[in-house]
């Protein structure tokens, strides 16, 4: 009888350990790396366009000229619901930047989670953690004006 109890206790311990490990893996955030250069996020566009910018107004001028065409060619990030870390780097932008991820459109902006922050000085990388639910999102930088790049979250 004690062998059966020992086996049951051992099996229960093993099952608990496996369940805990699986939960830890399920909760582990996926990292999405993004690089900001003047007026753009490189990974979702067709490469680094080599723009130069000394101030926000420079990007506003550049994006007024070709931002819509670039956005049409940009890659949509297709993700599954869950925890994410958006790791954003300021590469070669000579002023402080930010990151803003939110629902696309008024209804989605009101009902979906968002994350934002600043302090991305030249050469700095920061992490922005968020748990994404199903829906349509956009991300951009309001300080280094970029287009609103799309993220689709679905199962």
Short structural summary:
With 155 residues, the protein is of the alpha+beta class. Helices cover 32% and strands 35% of the residues. It has one domain: Cupredoxins -  blue copper proteins (Immunoglobulin-like), CATH 2.60.40.
Can you tell me about this structure?
The structure is a single chain. With 155 residues, the chain is an alpha+beta fold. The chain has a single domain, classed as Cupredoxins -  blue copper proteins (Immunoglobulin-like, Sandwich), CATH 2.60.40. Helices cover 32% and strands 35% of the residues. The chain has 3 helices and 9 strands. It has helices spanning 2-27, 56-73, 106-111; strands spanning 30-37, 40-41, 77-79, 82-90, 97-103, 115-120, 125-132, 135-140, 149-153. The strands form 2 sheets. It has a 5-stranded mixed beta sheet. A 4-stranded mixed beta sheet has the order 2-1-4-7, with no helix packed on it. A hairpin with an 8-residue loop joins β8 and β9 (149-153). 21% of the residues are buried. The model is unreliable at 18-22 (pLDDT under 50).
